[in-house]
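The authors assume throughout that readers already know how a fold can be written as discrete tokens. What matters is that the chain and its backbone geometry are given together, residue for residue. A single example would do more here than another paragraph of explanation. For illustration, here is how one protein appears when written out as sequence plus structure tokens.
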Amino acid sequence: MSVNRTDPFKDVFHTMTSFTVTRQIAIDAGHRVMTHGSKCRHLHGHRYTIEATCQADHLQTDGEQSDMVLDFGFLKDVMMAEIDVPCDHGFLAHVGDTELLAMFCPESAAASVWQDDIRRKVERDGFCLTSDTRMATKLYVLDANPTAEQLSRHWYRRLKPVVAARSGGQARLLEIVVWETPLCRAAYRES
């Protein structure tokens, strides 16, 4: 007597397909990891490389993005608007890093009032971008420590709805990878 040991899911897995596209940009930004037990607690900077990967089960069938997951130019435009413009040549800070924020507070402002305003914006939007700082430095304040892991999640959440809208719901943001150095990277994706 022979027993049929075929995998009932075999045909399902063989017919599933998807396409991905990936775009990179690079920014220069300073940060500090206030809770770090070693040198990263000090002010320093990185040449970050950020990769956004989008996925679709099938290619667009018509319009300007015909035969594409998502146009590379559009993906670049979104990454520039959401990552480069607010963060490049700026400083990335955690909203809870009050000592650091005090260094950026304009001399004409009361530190507690200025920081409370930033805190309210971070609570509302998940971030606050300002150049109303002591030396007019671009400051991007997050609701998390600006580690590569947290930045990958933050930027994923900023890009995800824009990618979905631009592709008419066909493409989805699969992953954001943040290279902090040429040898060290962190990635974020949602299930």
